[in-house]
Amino acid sequence: MARSGDLIREARLRAGLTQYDLGERTGRDRAVIARWEQGVVTPNVETLVELVRACGFDLPLELVRLDARGGHRLRKNALLSPERRVLRYLRAHRGAGRGP
Q: What's the pLDDT at 99?
């Protein structure tokens, strides 16, 4: 899972902005931007969305139901070799009539 600082840095770099530029766009000091990106402090959600939007991107936040079984399934599949995962995927989708 990406940290807020990683999201800020990625959005800023994709936009071709310096920390100073982002600070100018949002009315914040460059040092504050740097501390957020380094994870020294964490901005609140509203500020995070504002910073990403100032870079020309959107960070859509929505509630989605957590499938507790999904995490277990992902951990179990991560233990399989890539070849085994592909074989399982192909078998599952052939049976459902959705794959090759």
A: 45
The reply to whether the predicted model has a pTM over 0.70 is no
CA distance 50 to 52: 6
End-to-end CA distance of the chain: 32
Question: Per-residue b/e over 20-37, b at no fewer than 16 CB within 10 Å?
Answer: ebbbebbebeeebbbebb
Q: What φ, ψ does residue 34 adopt, rounded to 5°?
A: -60, -45
pLDDT at 20: 98
3-state SS class at 32? helix
Helix 45-54 with 19-26: angle, nearest 10 deg: 110
Long-range contacts: 18-23, Cβ < 8 Å, 24+?
Answer: 22/51, 22/54, 22/55
DSSP for residue 79: T
pLDDT in tens, 50-72: 999 999 999 888 887 777 666 67
